[in-house]
Amino acid sequence: MSVTTLDPQSASAQAGESLLEFPDNRLLIELCGEFDKNLAELERQFTVQIIRRGNQLAVFGEEAPRTETVDVLTNLYERLEAGKHVEMADIDREIRMGGDEATGSETDQLEMFSGGPVEVKTRKKLVEPRTDAQKAYVRSLFTNELAFGIGPAGTGKTYLAVAVGVNKFINGEVDRIILSRPAVEAGEKLGYLPGDMKDKVDPFMQPLYDALNDFLPGKQVAKLIEEKRIEIAPLAFMRGRTLANAFVVLDEAQNATSMQMKMFLTRLGEGSRMVITGDRSQVDLPRGVTSGLHEAERLLGAIPKIDFNYFTSKDVVRHPLVAAIIEAYDADSPA
Question: Facing residues of 121 across strands?
């Protein structure tokens, strides 16, 4: 059973009101959220008023935002009927995606290529894109052997790439996951770090560890790293290797030099997938040194089967202030 939208001409509905009836009151409670926080978020986003009456929700406001609110509520309820949960991230995704994301029962991963839901299954969670650009990016990662994700911080470039890598690893499509970053300090000299090589490079690699721990149990991550089925290493460590049957991610690629980028791209081996992510506005290379990411865009853009995916501040999925900060800096940048 699904949501019923009552006839606006009925006696139970008023002018400027949309009335929704939900068959399962238990799911309606989860839809509303603790202390109706989910409804409050929708009211804020769409400038409407939502009032609960038993197993009904009445939405008041202008017709266009009222209709959008009804669509989002309907999709979220269908998500609950399918046995999934509704969190703030799911509300954000439904609003950004304009309600075009399917919310039916669990489907095969390949359905994403025929207009079905775009979902990345990992050991710990189901990862779903929250913007159209993220949706296109995930599809690109599944269909291309070499893909680039370029855009500002907080747009999910690395997070989604690692999620797809974990998905392919647990499905047996690749034998290893290899995650790499240039070990470049972000504008400040840290001096000599104590410890062995791992201790010295781990601070640079921490965001990659964070992403992995979101998708795999901590003990499993440690075991796979020990077995070298997951490798997290600085870019310099890639020289001379052929990376076969692996899912390879180069993060913060804007800080790779031209020679480093060429070296890394030519590591691609049989049965492997490679993802390059970066933010052109956060180059930490010395003045006068060309970013390898910029050069790769210029040289490789016309090559078939190499896909470039671009993000903007509208795709930021961190705190809303992050998008505003990025837009402010972009507006102040010289043309």
Answer: 126
